[in-house]
Description:
By secondary structure, the chain is an alpha+beta fold. It has 1 helix and 3 strands, in the order αβββ. It has one helix at 12-22; strands at residues 26-31, 40-52, 58-66.
Amino acid sequence: xxxxxxxxxxxxxxxxxxxxxxxxxxxxxxxxxxxxxxxxxxxxxxxxxxxxxxxxxxxxxxxxxxxxxxx
Length: 71
């Protein structure tokens, strides 16, 4: 399998741009918390992990950023 760029930890906007420029196909999975104790920024996703599949494409796991709240 060809070597893919590591986009773990990148914002999804940056990662998608890197993957598009490299011509790499991908699918995304969104990870959600089991409890909704903290509110999330639904528009701001980050790459948690990536897995290269047998066909050379990537499976990208995304998570929303936690909102900061001041009490």
